Amino acid sequence: MIYQIIIAIGLMLLTINVILNLRSLRTPSKRARVPDPAPLVSVLVPARNEEENIGTCVKSLQKQDYPNFEIVVLDDNSTDRTSEIVETLMANDSRVRLIKGQFLPEGWAGKPFACHQLAQEAKGDYFLFVDADTKHAPHMLRSTLALAIEMKASLLSGFPRQLTIGLPQKIAMPIPFYFVIVSLLPLWWLHRSKKPKPSLAVGQFFLFPKEEYWRVGGHRAVKSRILEDVWMAFEVVRHGGRHVAVNLVPVACTNMYRNVGTMWEGFIKWIYSVGSLSPAALIGLAVAGYCFFLAPFYWLWHDFVMAVPPTEWRFIIAFQVALIFFMRILADSYFKSSVISIPLHPLGIAFMFAAAIYGGWRQALHKGIEWKDRTYEEASGIK
Question: Is the pTM of this model over 0.85?
Fold first, then answer.
């Protein structure tokens, strides 16, 4: 009885946190204005075997209504038609450049090295790093730059809209990318704090003033990190910069995982990286996730279907499940996720737990991790 009351109180507090987070997130405005003359923005796109995505991404960037920008794409040793597609698009657009990536040196993870090379080639006053699987509204560049200037951000990142294709992606994707973050992370407090604190960092969209990027050391500062976006945010704060997360759903979307296999690999990458840095943190997150987001459904089934007679706290458990669904409705409607994920919430959480168990097992046995056709062994120092 005491346990169920504690979980109910905890879920009530998490619900309040979700409401405060969603109320506090800023959204780029379609009516935003930028300084005159407009500063040059370098839009930097690392691409490795992205023939399915790179054309859509670059075309959406070419349609920006911002008056002063360049697009630099790095082909990170692709074995498909990535370079060929970009070369076709740049033929009649001097704003687009393609550079060939160097081979990955020892001690570097793939994406940090690709971004490092892009930054060295960039000419802009602002650097915007976007993933090759993103697509952008015409006012994206103008509205996000105006918001970054207004908020005096050393780094602006946030929540792009996560597009999904198959049923497994629709069920699982909204949970780690929206629900878990806005329920557990107090973004509203982090943004209001007078002392700079790390906020949400999503490497699909990173906007820096050039001076701030180089002041924190650029991607060289996180060269051995698989989760380079999270660690870049820590570097910004460690150097006294202001890092903000905003709602990017109206201006950017991404199709990260086109099948269950790539989604599984992506979840494991995240779990493995957390476990390699702090096994205790991974265990703590797993326990909290189970107690607050999965166990209430087991107890609901047990007390209303299996228990004879029903337990006296069954209505407290029903209240817990109602709070979880309420939080899911708030978050999923705000970020325009598939509604089918809400009633199938236990399946999505179970998928995350399966990835956590497998990723933790690989980390415990020092088996390393695979990502983007590269294998990072523990001896490489990449984590």
Answer: yes
